[in-house]
Amino acid sequence: MVVSMGFKVMDIDGDGLVTKEEHAAYFYSMNVPVEESKKIFDVMDTNKDGFISIDEYAHAYAEFLFTEDPNNEYNGFFGPLVD
């Protein structure tokens, strides 16, 4: 449920896919530098179709939550980590 709610917040037009523009708008709304959006979007878009699907979002969210690797590529899920 948390995953689907988070995805719906990003999916502004409700078409079931998050575009680069929608993802950048989400980061902007959270006061995260939009340049960071491009970095994590490219990581999350695992099939490289230019969109983030709910499955790609769920995978990225799980990686972010459950990794213990400080270098995990999904650590930027909500923007850069701070010390």
Automatic annotation (TrEMBL):
> At the top level of its lineage, which domain of life is listed?
Eukaryota
Q: Name one Pfam family in it.
A: EF-hand_7
Repeat recorded as keyword: yes
- Domain EF-hand: start-end pairs: 32-67
- Keywords recorded for this protein, A-Z: Calcium, Metal-binding, Repeat
Task: Tell me the InterPro entries matching this sequence.
Answer: EF-hand-dom_pair, EF_Hand_1_Ca_BS, EF_hand_dom, EF_hand_pair_protein_CML-like
Q: Which SMART domains match?
A: EFh
Signal peptide range equals none
Q: Sorted alphabetically, which Gene3D superfamilies does this protein's record hold?
A: EF-hand
MF terms per GO, please?
calcium ion binding
| Name of this chain's protein | Sarcoplasmic calcium-binding protein, beta chain-like
Which gene is this protein's source? LOC106152789
